[in-house]
Automatic annotation (TrEMBL):
Keywords: Membrane, Transmembrane, Transmembrane helix. It is a multi-pass membrane protein. The chain crosses the membrane at residues 26-50, 62-83, 103-126, 154-176, 182-202, 235-256, 271-293, 302-326, 332-353, 365-385, 391-409. This is MFS transporter. It is found in: Cell membrane. Residues 27-416 form the Major facilitator superfamily (MFS) profile domain.
Amino acid sequence: MALSSPGTNAARTAADASGPRPARGLLPLLLAGNTAMYALYVGVAGVLLALQVEAIDPAQKVANLGLVAGVSAIFATVFNPVAGALSDRSGRRNPWILAGGLLALPVMLLLGSVHTILLVTIVWCLGQAVMNVYQAALTSVVPDRIPTAARGKASAAVGLGLPVGSTIGALVGAAYSDDYRTGYLVFGAIMAVAAVLFTVCAREERMPPKAPLPVKVQLAAFGSALKNHDFRWAFIGRALLILGYFAVSGFQLYILKDHTDLPAGLAPEEAVAILMPVNSVAMVVSTVLGGWLSDRYDRRKLFVGASAALAAVALLIPAVSAGWAAMLAFSVVNGLGFGCYMAVDTALVTMVLPKAEDAARDMGVLNVANAGPQIVAPFVASVIVSVGGGYTPLFLVAAVLSVLGALAVRPIRGVR
């Protein structure tokens, strides 16, 4: 059993004693729900949105994509913890999952019909808002319904959504690269179906709703979780690694266009569709093994730190070589590092939540570490590429951030 501080251990024990047993089939439903979410994130933000921005203004594509991604990420940062707190107060998760998934469809329809950078930014902000309502509620299902001893397996199921969803997103995005409107509709439909499937099949027991609190108290409560020593360091580590990850992944299509020496006849969009499955296979292997081994040996910090360091090594590969083989190697090593990191770090985080009764709110606060760096990453990346004269300095900065993310888990005391 993991070592923990008295407060964290008490909250976790209470959650295990009083929380409902996980329903049969919940892990596959978590996988499906997260797969749909990441398919949209990768297919829209990583492929279709980049192509749409480039088609509107090719000369300013890097700056414009950074603007769209950065401004829209503000909405992700705001809506994630707010939606988590609202679902806490309502005592329900499923209605929020359903609403976010269904609303994605009309937002995607609207996104495919706009033709200026301003309108693309506004509509994608709406997209980030509804997607983070969905994500906040879905993320809270693990601490709500999964016993602590099975958190590694549950986190692996959640983590597998990233490689599987990324592959689906890249393939669908590449298939509809010349038809944005249809591509956006496909991703919206995937989200709607996933939301309906989850809420119909994963029935929940209504938790006691919380009494309304004054707005000032609610805002103060969001920051209270960061006063917890272990939770604060988990937050910092996640933020650093995500910042490095998105500084590079957000510009993957442009990296393939302007940095990588692709083989003759291979289009950048096709290269994305090749790299994603390669990355996903590596990520699946490390996600499953990382979740299982961290449960078996009860060593979360070791696996989180090692996988973050491996992600840093991966980022050095394309910095040294601009060849296609280097990008393939980067995809494999990065998949191994990032997949294990997300699986085990998610399990670690659920073990350092300050209060079991505020699980969704605190997981929403942690998700600021996912969404917050996405605000900074596009702006920082565009400045580094412009000032540094290319993408090599970007890879180096991202590698340093990953190393710092690996070191950030060392001060955590409540988990080994």
